[in-house]
Amino acid sequence: MSSKVINIVSATQIGKYQLRLCFDDGTTQDVDFGSFLSRSQHPEIRAYLDDARFNAYRLEHGELIWGDYDLCFPIIDLYNNQIEKAASMRAVA
């Protein structure tokens, strides 16, 4: 059984808290982080509602990150555009 590593090759802002992510297999996802950020109760996550802080994202080793990994998401959740589902599952754990 073989699993292919998926990497993000580009991220472009397309709206407030919205990024277009392009993956190395040609898949593109328009991910809206607004709901995730505004629903979070954690002050360090809510801090990314500040436009300047949110816009300071970068790609590093094929991953989308903010700060010193202060905010990051599993690649598969970004690839499937299911960051809210991931947040709900973490809340249950």
Architecture overview:
With 93 residues, the protein is α+β, with helices and mostly antiparallel strands. It has one domain (8-92): NE0471 N-terminal domain-like (2-Layer Sandwich), CATH 3.30.2020. The protein contains five helices and six strands; from the N terminus they run βββαααβββαα. The chain has helices at residues 34-39, 43-46, 51-54, 75-79, 83-92, and strands at residues 8-15, 18-23, 28-32, 58-60, 63-66, 71-72. The strands form two sheets. A three-stranded antiparallel beta sheet has the order 1-2-3. β1 and β2 (18-23) form a beta hairpin. The mean pLDDT is 89.
Features:
single chain, 93 residues, alpha+beta, NE0471 N-terminal domain-like, three-stranded antiparallel β-sheet, 5 helices
Topology, please?
Elements: E1 8-15, E2 18-23, E3 28-32, H1 34-39, H2 43-46, H3 51-54, E4 58-60, E5 63-66, E6 71-72, H4 75-79, H5 83-92
Antiparallel strand pairs: 1-2, 2-3, 4-5, 5-6
